[in-house]
Amino acid sequence: xxxxxxxxxxxxxxxxxxxxxxxxxxxxxxxxxxxxxxxxxxxxxxxxxxxxxxxxxxxxxxxxxxxxxxxxxxxxxxxxxxxxxxxxxxxxxxxxxxxxxxxxxxxxxxxxxxxxxxxxxxxxxxxxxxxxxxxxxxxxxxxxxxxxxxxxxxxxxxxxxxxxxxxxxxxxxxxxx
Length: 177
Prior knowledge:
This protein is mostly helical. Helices cover 53% and strands 9% of the residues.
């Protein structure tokens, strides 16, 4: 029985997942004892991950795969990981700590909603692939368009927006000095 990110599994359920496979594969997996030997156990699965409210807390920032949570159903982690440092650097290295805090706030603004959207998309993909939901064709068409925002991002434009936000915030910071 699935609850949250864990699943109460029984030996028969685990073995049944391999029923449609060829006998040599079944023997290799089940016969070789590659499955958990306990009759019943709690299994933790990473098919879903709760949304992160932010990747920034004061002067601390999480980047890369850790920042955009887990996307096991899409394999989008590598691409997102590559885009995040661009936004974080904002085409310059902030010198005073006040500029660093501004850069981290801009990073949050630029990256958070985009990466959480990818987490949502991964969650929906997993829901479909694991047959938790059986969507109708219209739902699938709408769902497929979500991938456009992942594949079709213009990283130069994305970085330009981050730089403009950084410049605007730093101007405001200078006014208070």
